[in-house]
Amino acid sequence: MSRILLIDAYSQIYRLFYAIRQLTSAKGEPANALFGMARLFLQLDAEFPTEYGALVFDKGKCTRRCGILPEYKAQRPPMPDELRCQTGRIREWAQAFGWATIDREGFEADDLLAGITSQRQDNSVLILTGDKDLGQLVKNGQVSLLKPGNAKTPWEEQDEAAVTAKFGVAPTQICDYLSLLGDSVDNIPGIPGCGPKTAAKLLNDFGSIDNILARLDTMPKSKVQETLAAEKEHLLKNRELVRLDYALPEEWQGLDTVKRNRPDWQKLLALCAEEGFNAIATEIRKRSAPQQQFFDF
Fold it and tell me: Which of 22, 98, 199, 254: disulfide with 261, CB 3.0–4.6 Å?
C-alpha cells in the first residue's frame, strides 16, 4: 500500500506568508511565502517520500456555494499584492520538486481534496492543511490530517481520535457540527445560541442533524429546541454550504494525475539562483545524488 500526500495549497501559502518576515528576492520581488514553501517542499521530500502527491488550489469563486449564499466568503479581503506576485513562482517550484499542481475553475481546494481522496484505491491519504472542514474526511487507517508543529514535534498527524478530542464529535459528524456552529471565516452564520459545547452535545445525543430535526417534537421545551425549530431552513442551508463536493480536476486520469516525480535538482538550483536563495541551494546540494554535478552561482 502506498501513501498519497495532498497539500491544501493556500492554507500553507497564507500561513507562511504571515509567519515569515518581509523578504525580497535577488530581483527585488517579495519572496517570503515562496521561501517558506521552498523549505516546506524540502522537508516533505525528506520526511514524506510518497509515491503520489499534489498541491491543490482554490480557483475563482465557488460556484455552488456562492449560488446558495451570495455572501459566502464575501468579507474576506483580496489577496495582498505582495503575495499574489509569488503564487506563480510557488507553482513553478512545486513542479520542479515533482509535485502535481491541481485546481478547477469554480471549485475550492477542499472539494478537490475530497474528490482525490475518494479515488485513493488501496492507498492511505495524508492531507497537509489547517482547515477544520477537512476533518470530515478522516478515517482511521485510510485518511488523516497533517499539521506543522514546532521544533520539538515538527509534525502532528491527526486521526479519528485526535479529531474527536479536538471538536467533541466524530469525523463523520464534523459537517453537521460546523452547520450548527457556523463559520465566521467563511461568512456562514451559525444557529443562534449554538456554541461548540451545545453543538457537540446535540450531536452526541442525537447523532446527526437529520435525527435532531426528526425528533424536535419529542424534545423537552427549551430555548435551544425553539431555536432549532425556527432555524430549520437555515440549518439545512448551512449543511449544503459545509458539505464537500468530492470534485475531481478536469484533467483527472486516475492516480497517475497526482504521481510524484523526482525533484529536478538542476532546475531547482537555477531557481535558487534567480531568487538568491543561497541557503536553500546549499541544502539542495546536500540532498542531491553525490555523483551529480551542479553549477555554482
Answer: 98
